[in-house]
Known about the structure:
This protein is α+β, with helices and mostly antiparallel strands and about 210 residues long. The longest helix is centred in the middle third of the chain and has 51 residues, at about 95-145. Helix 5 (about 95-145) crosses helix 6. The termini are far apart. The protein contains 8 helices and 4 strands, in the order H-H-E-E-H-E-E-H-H-H-H-H.
Amino acid sequence: MDESERTINSEIIATNSLGVFTAGVFLACGSVNDPSKEYHLEFTVPEARLASELSELLSDIGVTSGTVIRRGQFIVYIKDSESIEDTLTFIGAQQCTIELMNVKIYKDVRNKANRIANCDAANIDKVINAAMKQIDDIKLIDSMCGLDTLSDDLKEIALLRLENNEMSLQEIGESLSEPISRSGVNHRFKRISKIADELRAGSMKDES
């Protein structure tokens, strides 16, 4: 038979089983990548008809595959991790399926940890930037008219910020003589910021 006319013998599948046949195909021309690097399982076959029939066979077990030509060979590949798990389980490689699932769990946990770390870092940067802006406003008010010109509640929170530039709004609120909520602290800093902005605007008018 001409190579281009080779086909999958359905009698072999009928005599054995689709699972056993697919396992044989995998042993003959299949490979799977290290899942810690990428999810990829493939079969290398010599001609297009076999690749097409193998794709249909995989479709029969609910697995969607793709086909590409590489160095004159037809590659039937699977990239979806769940489809790879289904294929490995179907051909009797349950231990490989378990290892793949463990890698997925590890990668998922690691990715979540990285997202949390990135979020924490972003929040820290946000807190630092806000604190520096508050300190700039307070120092401006102090240099231009003195902190004694502020109301008692604003003066207390301004001094506390100058002495504790690393404190969060909640920590500042808890450290006041009469503790207030985070939103209450934020409101007072907005009042301080408004005073500082008015002083800046007045200074610019005087210069002009």
